[in-house]
Every structure is written in structure tokens, then in C-alpha cells.
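re: ur question from the group chat, yeah i did fold both. here u go
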Amino acid sequence: MREIDELIDVEDPAWPLLVQELSATDVPVEVLPVDAAAARACLGQLQVSARSNLGGIVLRCGGLLVDGGWLRIYGSPGDAGPGGLPGLAEVNAMPSSFDPAWRPEAGLVVAHDVLGGVFALNGRDARRSGRPGEPGEVVYFAPDSLGWEALGAGHSAWLSWILAGGLQEFYEGLRWDGRCAEVAGLNGRQGLSFFPPLWSAEARRDLAATSRRAVPMAELLGLGRESCLRLDGTDPGFLGAA
């Protein structure tokens, strides 16, 4: 186990370069304020250094709201209140005090989108759990196909792809007129529930004609997992605790 100072006091920390990348992007990104104590605790539990983008985000910001909040990348927020964005520690159900035995089931959930999609960083047990991709690769649980997809990139490359505008093509077919206003009306613990659901033929045929309502993100993730189990008997595993 490395002490917290070893994780923080590193040469070439990632955060200054990430700030430059955030400043240069044309993608709307809001950087939320950080809670320093929560950040240190989360970094210590992860045993990830500030040299990585993941460590830099955990240590230096409360999260990133991308594209008006369509995508929420988790960090270490302060007192977010009942509707504020949860932190990476809460989303991954980390222990309240350091536990050397703790580790994510198959990977670390690093972001959610408002559709109930999940971005996770594969852990060492990813293959055994049935997830695609290699350890350290970012994978996506797609609510329109109810399955995991390997994205072919690690965390830093994934973040650079987002800031380069990669989400526009990634969500092609899952955008509709008026979505910005609907997303803006959500708080940090809500997503959008669709009827008929995103995986249905009706939604694929005409997404704009679906009805949508704000629901707690935990409920939306639960619906995704239940749909997988009901339709093909496959359990996608942990999708996040928030």
C-alpha cells in the first residue's frame, strides 16, 4: 500500500495538462468544485497516483459535466445535497474508511450518461465476469442494446476522445430535438426513462416519439439490469450505486 502523500506528490501530475485540454476543447464541460478530504480518501482507496488522469480528476475536481450534463464523469465533490452529483467513491460503493481488501467487482464505474449508459474501467476480473475488453480498458454498458461494448481505449485516451468531440458520433441515433432542455432540467442524481424503452423496436424507429421522464439514476440503472435478466438471462453486473 502506498501512502497518500506518495500518490499526490508526484512528478508530472496529470491535472495541469488536463486543464489545458479542458480549456482548449469546443465541447461544453463544467468542472465542479472538489472536496479535498474526500479526494484524498478516494485516491488512497484507489491507490492511483495523481500522475494519471483518473487520479487527477479524483484529486482536483468534483466531477465533469459534459455537454450540458448529458455525461457525468465522477470526481470528489463537496456536500452535493440530495440532488447534487455523487462522487466516484459513492458511485462505486467504496468503504467509508480505507480497506486494503476492497476492489470493484469487475471494474470501476467512472461515468454515467442521462440514458442510463455506464462507462467503466475494466478491472483484472473483467473477463471472468463476462465483460469484453482488456484490463484497464474503458467499456460501455449501452441501454439501447443492453450489453457491454469495449471502446478500445484506456481512461486517458477515452477522456481525450470525449474532449475531441467523440460523443457526437457515439450517440448518433440517440439524440432528439429538445433534448438539451430536458437534460438541463435534471439534477445530478437523475436520468431519463424512456417508454417504449431504448432497446425496443418502437424507440429505434422513432426516438422522438417516445415519452420521457426524469427518474433517479439508481432506478434507471436497476431497470437496465432487470431488463437484461428478463430478456436474455444475462446479468451485466454492477452498474453503479448512485
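okk and heres the other one u asked abt
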Amino acid sequence: MKNNLILTLLLFVSILQAQEKKQTYSFTLQQAIDHALQNSYSAINADRDIASAKQKKWETTAAGLPQINGVVNYSNNFKIQQNQFTVNGQTNTLEFGNFNSMDASLRLSQLIFDGSYIVALQASKTYLKYYENAKQKTNSEIKEMVINAYGNVLLAQESISILEKNKATLSKTLNDTQETYKNGLIEEENVEQLQITLASVNSNLNNAKRLQDVALKMLKFALGMDINDDLTLTDKLDNLTTSNLDLAFSQGEFAVTNNINYQMATNFTEQRSLELKLQKSKALPSLSASVNFGYNAFNNQFQLFSQDQKWYNYSGLGLNLNVPIFSSFGRHAKTQQAKIALDQAKTLLTQTEQQLKLEYEKAKSEYDFSIEEYATSKSNLRLAERIEKKQEIKFTEGLSSSFDFSEAQRQLYTAQQNYLQSMVNIINKKATLEKILNKN
């Protein structure tokens, strides 16, 4: 009994802890986008890429600033080197050195001129700009992904709502038909046909519920949330559709230079240009200077840190001039490779420009079509509702067969799904067009 009580308490505590860790969120579409731009996994790593690029830029800058290095060397000559010399025909042996020696020095070095360093500074700025553009591209992709995921959840929710209404209406019609059949007024086939339709609606409803669960978890993943957290969507599908209906949106001019992919291709071309400049700069001389200051000490016994130990200081100033003269055309070959890479980057930039223009035309066409499709599906839904209603009246009055009524129902259910999908298409297609136009 006591053990059971302890186990119950432990289980209760674990449940409470799990509930405390579980968080609850409620987002409009814009709030979901804002949350994802701060907390999604891609956004977090894109910020880290920029932070790393800034450190890389400083690393490059620091290479041309004063460098100070301290060096301490200790040697223990347990066998001192000997040398021989001859005096008056007699050969003598003399030891050179001490058993213990130590040297401590500081070295200050400064780069005075190096063409490669100047180019490297320019390249570090381009390197940082590349990751800033990559961050902007990531944000654009995150926004589109969240819009699509948000719309898929709303689509699943609306599908469930419609299917539940269809199920309720169909169940009532089936019950009425069964009663009519019991009274011998209609054939059994009419009942069976409605049962087939109801089974199909039930299957679609169960599938829609599963899809809603998957879509919601995919949205949580896109937002950078734990998939077990609670998330409520406060925007409605019809409201989002209305707010994204903008016939004038796709009629403006497309400035390809505003597209982030074009900007990144331009950045890539700049990098290749700097690489060519770097290879050319290697033919220039480089000059650096250094100052050394240090102390050394010698002793046959290890008493280098005693008060009586003498330390001898030294210092010096050095200049180093390196003048490239002949490299057996190695530098020329590297320069030509960099030139070819630059030409390739320029061609890639032109290709990107033309590709983006095609993508814009395609996205604009698909957005315009989604608006037309929405109007058509809305009109078709109204017609399908009227046809289904008329067939239902005819069926209950015995003027129409169950097959005709079931066909009208299937036509209505298809029109309902097409209408819902057309609303999601407007939202998604506009998001794609905004991505190409680089609209925030």
C-alpha cells in the first residue's frame, strides 16, 4: 500500500513537471512570422553565421596590426659540445657553453606594406556582406515556409468543419431514407448508396484530422517550437484570403536588383574580382618591421632564478623586404585562373538575372490565376450547393434516384474542397511573388 502511494505521488509530480515545460502560444499569421524570424532553427544559425563573419573580418584586420609575442627558451646541455685547438703543436680540448641556459624575449612585429593585406581587408567586407545577404534570404524563405504551413493548418481545420457538417446532414438523410425503406416506399439500393457516401465522408474526415495534426506540427517546427507545445491560430482562412486579394499587386515593375538571389550573385562576382586582384597583388613587394628585446642567462648549475644570477639583455630592430622576381610563371597561371573564375561569375550573374525574370513572370501568372480560380470555385460552390439541394428534394419526393443524389453530393464535396484550396492558393502564391519581389 505504501509503495503504491509513493508511485502515485511520483507519477503526479512527473505529470506536473511535464505540464510546466509545455508552453502555450496563440498567433496571427504575422505574429507567427515574427516569432519564426527570431526563433526558427534556420534564423538562429543565420545570425551565428553573421557573428562568425564579423569575427573573421576582425581576424583579417588584426593581421596588419602590431603583433607582440613572448618567447621563453630553456636548455639543459647534459653533455657540452667540445672542440679542439692546437697550440705549439699540442692539441687541447675545450668545452663551449654551459650546462644550463635560459632566454626570455619579446618580439614586436608590424606589417608596413603588403598588397595582399589590402585586398584581404576589402574581401572581409564582401565576406560579411555575403552572410548578411544570406540572412535576408533565410528570412524570406522562413516567411514563405510559415505562410504555407499556417495556410495548411487552416485548410485542414476548415476541411474538418465542412466534413463534419456534411456528415451530420448525410446521417440525417440516411436515417430518414432508412425509415422510408422500412415502410416499403423505396428500394434498398437507395439506402446502400447513401451508406457508401457516408463511409467515404467518414474516411475523409478521419484523414483530415490526421492531416491537421501533421500540419500543425510542421508549423510548430517552422516556428522553432517544441512540437508538443500548444498552438492556437487566431487568423481565419477567409480573412487571410480577402487581405491577400490584390489585383494591382502583380501589375508593378520588377526590379531584379532588389531580389536577394541577384544581390548574392553580385556579391559572388565581387568576391571573384577581389580574388583576381589578390593574385595580381602578389607580384608587389612587401615590407615589415620587427623589434626584439630580451634577456638571457647561463649557469653550470640550475640556479638561474637565484639573486646572484646575472641576466644579459639584448635588443634589435629588423626590416624585412620581400620582392617577388621570378616564379616560373606560377603567379601568372594563378592570375589567369582567377580571371577565368571572374568571367564565370559574370556569366552566372547574367544567368541569374534572366532566371529571376522568368520566375517573376511565372509567379505573377500563377498569382493572377489563383485569383481567377478563387472566383470560379466560389461560383461553382454556389451552383453545386443549389444542385445538391434540388437533388435532395427530388430524392426525398421519389422523383430522383439515389445515384443522381449521390453524384450531386460528390460534386458538392469536390466543389467545397476546391474552394478551400483556392483560398490557400491565393495566400501561398502571393507569398511566392512577394519573395521574388523582396517585399517585407
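fwiw on the second one: The CA atoms of residues 165 and 301 lie 100 Å apart. The chain is about 65% helix and 15% strand. idk if thats what u expected
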